[in-house]
Amino acid sequence: MQELAQTLQPWQVLERLRRDTSADLCRAAVSLHDCRQAAQEKFGNLAHGMMFDSQALQMASSGPVAAHRATRFATGESVADIACGIGGDCLALAQRGRVAASDLDPVRVWMARHNAEWAGVGHHVVVTQADACSPAARCASLFADPARRSDGGRRVRHGNDYSPSLEQIVALRSRVRCLAIKVSPALDEAQLPATAEEVEYVSWRGQCREAVLWFGATESVRRRATVVGSGSLLWDETAPPVVEVGPPGPYLYDPDPAVVRSHLVGLLAKELNASLVGPQVAYLTAAEEKVTPFARCFQVLMQVPFGLRRLRQQLAAEGLRPTEILRRRFPVEPAALMRDLREAGSTGTRDVSLVCTKVAERPVVFICDPR
Ligand SMILES: C[S@@+](CC[C@H](N)C(=O)[O-])C[C@H]1O[C@@H](n2cnc3c(N)ncnc32)[C@H](O)[C@@H]1O
């Protein structure tokens, strides 16, 4: 299939497969092939021999994110992965010790077993079909990544609509030394269980991928913002760190989404000696440039009160060509603004980033050099 797909059009591949196989088998082969292609972003080269269904692939944790999470469980201790799906997390957990994985769905159980063997960690993983609410295995730690979609495939917003529900998973806390629950990073804070000792927001490749509720983990802090591969910001107070609003300086910082979600912008501001651009606006401004993995830094070339004509004129006069538009608390969609600017015909040659926001309640555009 892989060889055919490299040389033929998709319809030709189907036609060729149909010569020797049933229509059902053909569809399954094409779907698996598509999943394996898409899965390379999450699993790299390992993907080409893994088993997936498309919904399970969408729900699976990305390899580097799962690997980071696995390092927070004690090395050598057994972990129960009670809603394992196709085993995205299992593979990472098995690098550090034994894993008792289970899922309600028998096909995913089979896929997770295959994937563990394929990844070379089969000797560390036992996969069974079981309901998460009554896990068969006794392990030191427990990890749950509940399904966050309804039967119709729509995302659910409430933790108690997860499957298994947040409440059902938290009820397993007393059985283990350490419990970790992966939830949506957008889950309303009011829904976070009060007994969770730590909430960790994790980003990878510029997107906040997950929040993890930790109970009984070592070196726990109340809030953690992790940028996978670069480190974490830690905060152990009840109230979030505060930061003042200050006049815009020559450098702007766009904090990583994990920092914003975890309400640790104030902590980052201290590290950068920066202040907020405006109240409720998570852009920071500073007099000096500092390198940090927790924010993108821009050098401000000029600040323009927003107006389409004025912005166009300014860009044209300076020979500037916007290549990206960022916005917070700004009335115009970046895609629409980019379209409007391009329609005017750009003569600029120097690439710039536009950071659009409100300063003193007025919409402004910072024309920036991306550092
Ligand atoms: C988000 S996926 C897990 C993805 C997995 N962590 C990975 O990286 O591949 C959630 C899984 O929970 C399973 N599930 C839903 N309700 C369950 C229950 N009550 N008991 C066990 N598994 C359940 C679903 O079948 C689905 O495969």
Q: What does this 3D model show about the protein?
A:
The protein is of the alpha/beta class. It is 29% helix and 27% strand. The model has no long low-confidence stretch (mean pLDDT 93). Bound molecules: S-adenosylmethionine. S-adenosylmethionine (SAM) binds next to α5 and α7.
Features:
371 residues; alpha/beta; Rossmann fold; 9-stranded mixed β-sheet; 7-stranded mixed β-sheet; globular; binds S-adenosylmethionine
In short:
The chain is of the alpha/beta class and 371 residues long.
Bound heterogens, unique: S-adenosylmethionine
**Largest beta sheet: strand ordering:** 3-2-1-4-5-7-6-8-9
Inertia-based shape: globular
Strand tally is 16
Strand content: 25-35%
* Rg over C-alpha atoms, rounded to the nearest angstrom: 24 Å
Give the biggest beta sheet. Answer: 9 strands, mixed
The CATH first-level class of the largest domain comes to Alpha Beta
Class by SSE composition:
alpha/beta
How confident is the prediction overall: mean pLDDT? 93
Distance N to C terminus:
44 Å
